[in-house]
Every structure is written in C-alpha cells, then in structure tokens.
Amino acid sequence: AQESREQWNHQAGFILAAIGSAVGLGNIWRFPGVAYSSGSGAFLIPYLIALLTAGIPILFLDYAIGHRFRAAPPLAFRRMAKWAEPLGWFQTGLLFVIGIYYAAVIAWAMSYFVFSFDLRWGDDPATFFVSEYLQVGDPVVSTTPVWGVLIPMALVWILMLVVLLLGVANGIGKLNMIFIPLLVVIFTALVIRALFLPGALDGLDAFFTPDWAALADPNVWIAAYAQIFFSLSIAFGIMITYASYQRRKANMTSSGLVVAFANSSFELLAGIGVFATLGFMAHQANTQVSELEGLTGPILSFVTFPKVIAEMPGGNIFGMLFFASLVLAGVTSLISIMQGVSASVQEKFSIDRIKAGLIVSILMGAVSLFLFSTTSGLIALDTVDMWSNNIGIVLSAIVMSILTIWIMRRGRELRIHLNAVSTFKVGPWWTVLVGILGPVVLGFMLVQRVITLITEGYEGYPGWYIGVFGWGTIAFVFIVSVVFTLIPWRRKEFSDAQFNA
Ligand code: PHE
Ligand code: NA
C-alpha cells in the first residue's frame, strides 16, 4: 500500500517536537518541588535509576511501537493483536483528560504573564490567586464562569485548533521549531538572572544537599518513577503517535537518548533556577529555605513565585520570563496531547486531518472550558490530575509492558526493529527492563497509591466528590476504551488489521 501518512519535515522536526512534548509544566513546576521534598541532592540517585531502568526503556518501547506499526495507539495496538485495541483507547482517553486541565494551567500562566507588567497580585499573592483570580468556591460543580480564566483558555484552544489543522509538518513541526529554541533562550536568561540574586547560593545548597536517609523511604523511589513517567510523556500514547510520523529509515534510539537527555537537563536547570530564587526569598525574609512554605504544585508557580517577583529589582521582567516559559513549555506539550487524540479519531473513522482536528479541539475545548473556567476549576483540576497521573498512567504502563512482552511476545521483534536503523543498539537487557523490572516496580507503586487514596482520601474532599472527579476519571477512561473499541472501523484494511510492518 502506498504511504499517504503525514511525515515530519526532517529528523530535527521530530526531535524538537518530542522534546516539546517532554519539556512541559512538569519540568518547571513539578520537578523542583518533588526533588526537594524527596531527599534533595539524594533524590538524583533514584531519579537517575528511574530514568535508566524505566524511563528510557519505555520511551524506546513507545517509539518502537509507533514506528513499526505506524499509527496512533488504537490502531497501533490493534495491528499487534486485534484484542489489544482497548489499550490504545485507554491511552487516548487519558490524553483527553490530561489535555482538558493542562490547557487551564497554560491559561493561568498567560494571565500571570500579563499581571507581571504591573505586579497585579499585590502583596498577598495567595489571596489574589485563589479568591480574586480563580474565585475558588466549594468543591461543587459550578457553572459560574470566571472570565479572567475563560478568555485565555479560549485563546489556548483556538491556537490548538489552528496548529492541528496545519498538520504534523507545518503545524506541530513549525510550532516547536520556534517555541523550543525560544524557551531555551528565555529560560536560560531566567536561570542566570536568578543565580545573581542575593541568597541564590543558599537556595542551591538547600536543593543539592543530600538527605541520604531519604533513600530508605520507598515513597521517594515511587516519586522518582512517577516523575520520570510524567516528565518524558511516556505510556500516554504520545510518543507512539509522534514516532508514527517518522520516516521508515530513521535513527530512533539515538533521538530517544537526545530527547531524554534534553528533558532531564531542562529539569535540572529548572531546579537550579527555582531554588536560586527561593534562596533569595529566604534571604529577604531572613530565614532558611527549609522554613519556606508553598514549594510544590500550582502554589509554587502562582503564589510563591509572584511573592518573590514582587520583592525583586526588575521583578516585572523576571515574572514575564518565568510565565512566558510556562506558556511555551505548556503549549508544546498540549499540542502533542491533541495530536494523539486527533490521530486516533482520524484513523478510527477514516476522516481527514481537518475534520478530526476540528471535532477534537472543539469537543475538548468545550469540556475544558465547562469544567475548568468556573469557580470550581482549581479543585477539580487538582483531583483529576492526581488520579490520571498516579493511577491512570501507571496502569497504562504496566498493561502495555506486560501485553507487549509477555502476551503478544513482541519484545524481540521490536528490539530488532529499533536496531535495524538506529546507531545506539538495544541489547536483550531492554526486554528484561521493560518486561520484568518495569511492571514489578510500577505494580508496587500502583498498589501503594490505591491503598493510600482509598484509606486516606484526598485533601479532605468529600467522598462523593472524589468518587466523581477522582475514581470517575478512571471509570471514564475505561468506558472510553470499551465504547470506542466497539465502534466498527470504517476502513476494511484497518479492521482486518493485516499489516506488514
Ligand atoms: N511531559 C510533560 C511535562 O513534563 C507532561 C505531559 C504529560 C505532556 C503527558 C504530554 C503528555 O510537563
Ligand atoms: Na518533562
């Protein structure tokens, strides 16, 4: 059959897009806080081990599946075994869920970019963020729109629509070609500026001084594996989709190593920048970094940082650089999510890119605006994020590894496929890591999380709320996998799943 599939313009297009997907909000607002609270300097050890034993091997697995079976997750898995299609929809469903809240955070960063001009948040950024900007209400489903959030969110969705319609090479490829270099320049400037702030070195000290005892804590290891998964965007079906647009003869493993290295470097850089800034904050307050509060999650970026920015000479510029970085990093990740969903729909219903792009971005945009631009947005986001990342993605990774290696027995074939065109050769160790170590470590993580969430609940939210937005998220993804699998394929050659890779 002739190949009408979209393709990246060149190898660099693919690599930049893959880096764009990997480098995201997770690097800037998640990594520094996670590392700090999980042993600081000592965290680098579990982090590196997680990267080498699970991160890179599963990244290669995603690449191999996408490149060999040349499709988005549902069709790629179907081509491996007809009954495996639901796993593809499970990943697509997760992308749907993550995309709708990721867009909200990008929108907040856009607003805060503008607020940086006049330091709009004043001297109580916590109250400003929660009460004035987000207008957070009780954890109920509210339909009261918050215009300050709704408008930037709508802009994000319009941008997604336009880029999707322009396609893989001219839309996504070009977007990353501009945004990624820009992000590197802006973020580097930000980190250099931060290093010259008084107290910066104390911040780095706090960040890098190892707490060796942390290594004995299984939660620290769990945190390292979870961070690596989210951060590399693996087991979401994104890298499967992106790799499916690579030319047949493309060096897959080497680009994988470049992407993994770039992502981790960016993470370290973010840790340095963030902690240098926090060192300055402690210096101003005449205290220690360890005494500071609000170092994780949305609070770090939208409350703690604004506070520091307000105390800094030239804070406006610093704020603009910081929030611009969040927007750039976020947009290039969100577009990878959108392409994953759009390509799945495109193949299943045999519709063209334009139609799929329109349907997917309008649908996701509408749901996203409905759920996250209202006064209950922040709380819903927090809950959906917890369940999709700590349960959904881990489950997806476990099932994917076990099915591919043990049930479908494709390990050897995929390894040979990778090695056929790549310069970095993958040895049998790869199958062991993906097939045995991965599922064992991840299985342990999953059980641990499920038990904690069931016995302790989450953030004290009411049970019905956790049921709807937490477990409901997972139930939703399961329903998506069943329903979409049951819909018949429009093209016979896809439903037969005959595929000569
Ligand atoms: N890897 C991205 C980050 O670090 C997050 C992401 C997850 C992006 C899943 C796309 C899909 O922020
Ligand atoms: Na990342």
Description:
The protein is mainly α and 501 residues long. It is built from 19 helices and no strands. The chain has helices at residues 11-22, 25-37, 44-69, 73-80, 85-118, 125-133, 147-195, 200-208, 218-232, 238-243, 252-284, 297-311, 315-348, 353-372, 377-407, 411-421, 429-456, 463-486, 492-496. The longest helix is centred in the middle third of the chain and has 49 residues, at 147-195. Bound molecules: phenylalanine and sodium ion (NA). Residues 22-24, 26-27, 231, 263 line the site of sodium ion.
In short:
The chain is mainly α and 501 residues long. The protein has 19 helices and no strands. The chain is globular, with a radius of gyration of 22 Å.
The total beta strand count reads 0
What is the straight-line distance between the termini?
11 Å
One letter per element, helices H and strands E, the order comes to: HHHHHHHHHHHHHHHHHHH
Number of distinct helices: 19
- Tell me the fraction of residues in β-strands, as a range: under 5%
Task: Briefly note the structural class of the backbone.
Answer: mainly alpha
Mean pLDDT: 93
What ligands does this structure carry?
phenylalanine, sodium ion
What radius of gyration results from the CA coordinates? Answer: 22 Å
Unreliable residue runs: none
Percentage of residues in helical conformation: over 70%
Coarse morphology: globular
For the biggest sheet, the summary is:
none
Transmembrane segments: 12-31, 43-66, 87-115, 146-166, 178-201, 221-245, 257-282, 317-337, 358-381, 387-408, 429-451, 463-487
Keywords: Membrane, Transmembrane, Transmembrane helix, Transport
Subcellular location: Membrane
Protein name: Sodium-dependent transporter
